[in-house]
Amino acid sequence: MIEETNNILLKVDGLVKHFPITRGIFRRQVGTVKAVDGISFEIKGRENLGLVGESGCGKSTAARVILQLLKATSGKVYFKEQEITSISSEDLRKRRPQMQMIFQDPQDSLNPRMTVGSIISEPMFEHQRLKVKQRRERVEQLLDSVGLDPYVTNRYPHEFSGGQRQRIGIARALALSPDFIICDEPIAALDVSIQAQVINLLEDLQEEYGLTYLFISHDLSMIRHISDRVAVMYLGRIVELASSQELYSNPLHPYTKALLSAVPVHDPVLEKKRKRTILVGDVPSPASPPSGCHFSTRCPIAEDRCFKVSPEWRQVSPDRRVACHLV
Hints:
Elements: E1 8-23, E2 28-44, E3 48-52, H1 59-66, E4 74-79, E5 82-83, H2 89-95, E6 99-102, H3 106-109, H4 116-127, H5 132-145, H6 162-174, E7 180-184, H7 192-209, E8 212-216, H8 220-226, E9 229-234, E10 237-243, H9 244-249, H10 254-261, H11 268-273, E11 314-317, E12 320-322
Parallel strand pairs: 3-8, 3-9, 6-7, 7-8
Antiparallel strand pairs: 1-2, 1-4, 4-5, 9-10, 10-12, 11-12
Helix pairs in contact: 4-5, 4-6, 5-6, 6-7
């Protein structure tokens, strides 16, 4: 893994994304889905930050708001010290080549009516003034860099396996030589035998191109392997952020402890001895989150104030933050 630098590439400050709930003929608003409810973090250049949490906690929505694929309700996103949530469409378009995304399901994210060559070269056509020959050579180079035959440019996505389609998606994300890539569960739709190949490919590409990753995943073992730091998200909020080593060896937030206790241990003796944290109840609806701490209704150690007062997002040690009254 590439050594970190001290520069802050991306800064997220109090980011909020709420979706209105409407009813009736006149689409009157009757409520709000609080998908992302005030998250803050930073990512250094050439660093890997993992973002984990249960389904529906807001991870993918946060990713899309960071890239401005969705407009933020409030809060700020700074990329290379420039605030991008309120800039003009034209200025944002100039920033697009530096920020890219690898989507979860390559079957859905690749246009079935376009050839592989057209899919990968489309960003170049939109953002770069390259001649046809230059684009073709660049496409072949990208295909080779992701481990595919450079001469498959005239084939269509359905002619490839799931792992190969994800490699095509990675090649498309690299087409404009970005600095920052969000990987939204890039291996979730792949066979287990292919997942390690894709992760190793992403690590090799980071070494080669000096990339910065935000990894979103349910796979806590993979996140531990590839991430320098890990942020844990629950019901629209980040509850803990720490280095991968610290988080996995000494989780502080009750929700983090419960998540990590669910990760299987390969040693049957240790698996039998270790203590599981079983959460009771279901995840509350983001349309009606609990008052105070969002985790209070399922927390095994919650106190009275947890149900009334929202915990402060605070630093408890160098490069470690937690949102919990009891830490």
